Amino acid sequence: MTAQGSFAPDETFAAPLLAWYDDHGRKDLPWQRDRSAYRVWLSEVMLQQTQVRTVIPYFERFVAALPDLRTLAEAPQDRVLALWSGLGYYSRARNLHRTAQICVAEHGAELPRDVEALSALPGIGRSTAAAILAQTWGERHAILDGNVRRVLARWHGLRGWPGETATQRELWRLAERHTPHERVADYTQAIMDLGATLCVRSRPHCLRCPVAPGCVALRDGLTAQLPARKPTREKPTRATTMLIVRDAQRRTLLERRPPTGVWAGLWSLPETDDAAGASRRLLDRYAVRVDDGVALARFVHTFSHYHLEIAPLLLERAVPLDRVADAPDRAWYGPDELESLGLPAPVRKLLQTLNEEVR
């Protein structure tokens, strides 16, 4: 894979970008204040596939509760997942927790300064490691997140899908080439800001772009086509019935999901493929007797690879028949206890709506 058009010298890219950043860049984001490797790392992980305005309140709440790497490592996983609940892609939170524990055990409760050691930790990888080192200590390392890929693909007229190996390799080469030897932290933030605010996916603001004069996509009218989109496949739809089982005290029966798969490790509602047999399933599997269920409005939750059609079934006046209903990964929680749990976003919203209707 080769870029289209001739390459301009590096100074035609980094210099105007930094000048633009001085006047227009974001310099007061929460993780830029009291900057530390921990705070930069947390922000970079949260910002993976998530916009800044969404991340800010989660970041502030997370660091208020777990202000450093050691407190994160020592926190129960349920606490970490509860703080993350709603951000999605929960493997990011589990990887944060695991990485913190590794750093306490092997790196003196600090993130390693070596790029290879850092990128080998769970959930970090090459670009995130580079961003941590560049923004915390000003070390010269190139980054290549989604925003940077889009900027470089357009500026150089690179036509391949960035997920392809050859295109990815070329983008890394270009990212390395453009990264300056001075003001690396500012440059790293600047190119991310450019992609997030001007060189956006749809309708980029090319007239305000500081590097527009050298942009091949702008010159050739390709901004709508570059970077190339991933070949699409129609998402399948799956269906499940979620059982909202509540006892006389309005406690809800929840169970922890398996350690792998969708919503791994989170607390969620029991599910069944047979709504008509829900009462029998609850009696046989959970030792809980319930009244007949009331079907609530169906809704769809979309994952990256499929749609999930959820049919909630409300079963009240549940009576636990023995302690089988309180197995280690199964428990009853009152409305005021749900906030402290790691719950999938659609489950949390569903339960909050039900509890608010009762008040």
Automatic annotation (TrEMBL):
Binds 1 [4Fe-4S] cluster. One of its GO terms (molecular function) is purine-specific mismatch base pair DNA N-glycosylase activity. Gene3D superfamilies: Helix-hairpin-Helix base-excision DNA repair enzymes (C-terminal), Hypothetical protein, domain 2, Nucleoside Triphosphate Pyrophosphohydrolase. This is Adenine DNA glycosylase. SUPFAM superfamilies: DNA-glycosylase (SSF48150), Nudix (SSF55811). InterPro entries: A/G_AdeGlyc_MutY (IPR005760), DNA_glycosylase (IPR011257), HhH-GPD_domain (IPR003265), HhH_base_excis_C (IPR023170), HhH_motif (IPR000445), MIG/MutY (IPR044298), MutY_C (IPR029119), NUDIX_hydrolase-like_dom_sf (IPR015797). The keyword Iron-sulfur applies. It catalyses: Hydrolyzes free adenine bases from 7,8-dihydro-8-oxoguanine:adenine mismatched double-stranded DNA, leaving an apurinic site. Residues 46-197 form the HhH-GPD domain. Adenine glycosylase active on G-A mispairs. MutY also corrects error-prone DNA synthesis past GO lesions which are due to the oxidatively damaged form of guanine: 7,8-dihydro-8-oxoguanine (8-oxo-dGTP). Its EC number is 3.2.2.31. Keywords: 4Fe-4S, DNA damage, DNA repair, Glycosidase, Hydrolase, Iron, Iron-sulfur, Metal-binding. Belongs to the Nth/MutY family.
